[in-house]
Amino acid sequence: MPELPKTRDRSPHSVPKTLNPSRLWVSHRSRHVPSCGWSDYDGPITPDWHRMADEKGFRIVRRIRDRFHLTLECKACGAHTAVKLFALRDSRPRCGGCAATKRQNAADGAKLVFLRRDPQHHKYGVFRALCGHDVRRQFGFVEKVRKGEVDVKCRVCLIEHEKAEALAQGWERVGPDPDGKANYRLYRHRCGHLQRVARVNMRNGQCDCAACGQSWSSKPSVIYLARIQLSSANLDVVKLGYSANPKRRFRHQLGLSKLAKVTFLRLLPMPTGHDACAAEKQANASLVRDFPDGVVPIATYSAHINVVSEIYRPALIREITTLMDQIKARLVAADTTR
Ligand SMILES: [Zn+2]
Ligand SMILES: [Zn+2]
Ligand SMILES: [Zn+2]
Q1: Would 260 disulfide with which of 19, 230, 252, 330, CB 3.0-4.6 Å?
Q2: Centroid of ligand 2 to alpha carbon of 206 (angstroms)
Q3: Contact (Cβ atoms closer than 8 angstroms) between residue 314 and residue 236
Q4: 224-262: pLDDT as tens digits
Q5: Backbone φ and ψ of 8, nearest 5°
Q6: What is the C-alpha separation between 310 and 187, in angstroms, rounded?
Q7: Ligand 3 centroid, distance to 208 Cα (angstroms)
Q8: Under DSSP, is residue 334 helix (H, G, I), strand (E, B) or coil?
Q9: DSSP-derived secondary structure letter, 283
Q10: How far is CA 196 from the centre of its chain?
Q11: Closest CA to 24 of 98, 83, 82
Q12: How far is the CA of 41 from the centre of ligand 1 (A)?
């Protein structure tokens, strides 16, 4: 432990009753310094320093370590904090005691027990959650939990929960999404087939197995490129999407007016809805990434077309058909290697 502070230079402030001089708070940047490194340093304390400390809510206790360091006593809580001289001069020194109290209050308010700081990262602490598991969280995050803005979300409990959700649908939760999407997981169907499924779909039972299921995802589907023209609204756009039966359902699915003229420029049959969905998503993502100017802002069409994306300017037709050619080429390649 650091030595007891020896007050050799009295400032005009009285010592608060809560003073606990046995503890010296040290910034995370100086935690590598052993406690013997914080002993007294001989040297004067100028009236100017006293004035600055006073204005910033502190009292100078003594000089320590080397000519750059001081021990400050917080006028609010009485805690002692090691501070660099330039910090006193150029900024508002941070009281280690007040910060610890704030951390403790945040943990209490978040119904967490603060166990220890993370020695690897000063912004993180380890807490015991109500479920009994230990969680590593940012102190700022705990403050948000206290305010009710976010949940603690114990990872161990979350995984247990997801396993039970999957089991109820006849699936086993294998692990995180191999493609790295945060809202997807990898699951194994009872038939042995591995498949990525959005967690929300698993929870709601919308998770048909592409290998053995009898549902949209295992039935044939169609990727389409359609041009939608509505002269009364001066609208001329194209949409890239997929559907089991685009010709029959298109208008209804998109909530189009009878006045809208729909032309299917290209229909690409896909072996399953699952394949169609994956290929269409990938194509739309690459269009948005590579041709942002070709993406029609939602405000332009939201009154006429009931979708929130995948609407492009007709200038992109050639690029979109090229992408559809590539999807077809991949299908043919997969078919011949089967
Ligand atoms: Zn304080
Ligand atoms: Zn837990
Ligand atoms: Zn299956």
Answers
A1: 230
A2: 27
A3: yes
A4: 999 999 998 899 999 999 887 787 778 877 888 888 999
A5: -105, -5
A6: 28
A7: 8
A8: helix
A9: H
A10: 20
A11: 82
A12: 23
